[in-house]
Task: structure prediction
Amino acid sequence: MFRRVDLCAPADVNNDAVRVPAHYENVSSTQLGSTLRNEAGVTVATVEHLMSAFSGCGIDNALVDIDGPELPVLDGSAAPFVMLLECAGIAKLPVPRRFIRVLETVRVEEEGKSASLSPCDGAVFGFEIDFDCAVIGRQSYLYDAGTQAYKTEIAPARTFGFLHEVEHLQSVGLARGGSLQNAVVLDGNGVLNTEGLRFEDEFVRHKILDAIGDLYLSGARIIGRFDGYRAGHGLHYKLLQALFANPVAWEYSDGLAPALPVSTLPLRRAARG
Ligand SMILES: [Zn+2]
Result:
């Protein structure tokens, strides 16, 4: 649950008007990341990297107070969020976890892109990208969330874009903070960031990071296998819509399945209030 604390007095942070539930039905735009909007029209933009960090760290419940319309992009990855969550620690709640178990394969596709969810005894994310650009080219990656490797394999992978896109966005007043400090930027010849890539396949790893965050707007972690082919935020939400539109394709589960991700964060006493 996000709370836009800049839009209300401190005593009113629990008013529905400033609370924006982290739920796929509230996704209002997927153009430059995922934007949520509540019934009062209050928005929170670019939630996917923080949502991904929550999923990767095994956090089911969180209140996110934010004092502006957009999550900070930080270094373009989820690693700073994971670091801060580790510093904060977690509290164990008295209620059992609830998972969403995929029972039947659901698939969506458009314009040569596709995304699917299939039954699987764990949480697995596969992705393949195919860019008409020599540096990226064709990359695929399979991430098993049960391996607990989110922090090292997925979280550090940064978002990426092409120089001409960044220039265009900035010419229309967007991505004004966009720089080589918060994204991998490419031009026709290669990567412009002097430090280079964090992984040879950083691009497809970031697509998995995004998919984990987008699918977490389902309201629970999903027991099943996700496969994305050149997909993006818009298709991820269409996939969730297709899943929940088909009552026999999924069920709530208490999560007694093998190889489910659990949190390895330090346990702290629950904060009250
Ligand atoms: Zn992203």
